[in-house]
Amino acid sequence: MPPFVVPRTPWYVLGLLVLSLWVLAACGGNDATPTPEPTPTPQPTEAVAATPLVDETLPAVVEETVPPPAALATPTVSELTVVENDTDCSIEYDIDLAGYQDLKLKMGCAVGPSNNGPVGINEFGAGPDYNRFMLWFGGEQEIYVLFPDQTWQSYRDTWDEGQPEISCNPLNVAPSSPPLPRRGFGKLWCSVDGLQQQLGTIDREERLCQHVIVQPFEQGRMLACFEDATIRYFRLLNDGTWDLEIVQ
Question: Residue 231: which H helix or E strand, with range?
């Protein structure tokens, strides 16, 4: 058997092979070794956007934790309730005197029970805003004269049914009432020097209060005279002064 002989490769074949390898390297080289792309630099937009978020939420937290000012300024007890609280007084005031404002402040505690004894009233001088009165307390047979200078004086009622209703007539007019006071008021008006000048005449007949509350207090005596739709609250104070409050 003849020996194996390796055939020679012609030079032009080798040249074609080298050329083919060069072309392949030029076309596919990029796939073999990719060029790394530059990493993008992070932008500071996220950090900048986060800062206002903190500023926006902070006021909301403050507003939720701080109570509104109005809730701190609401009063719980009115002045009238405090004044009218009679828990520290041993004797309660009459409920019909509750319409008089600041009763305890102006009169102190009650020192005795109330009574409903008859009280007669007569206004003197010109109305309708009368500033002088006579008050007859039937249970005591006393007449209280309330002068226009806001002082008062009490007198014993000495008139009786056997005496004339009109005790005097200094005006020399028909003896009628008005203008002349009558009964116990008229007798006092005629007998006390200077009383006619201080009080004047009457333009309305004397009468009894329709409903009466009289009660003694530390500062004096309180009288509530109910007449039609009007309540007159008279304060006869221990210092010899008086005042009047009218409720309609």
Answer: strand 230-237
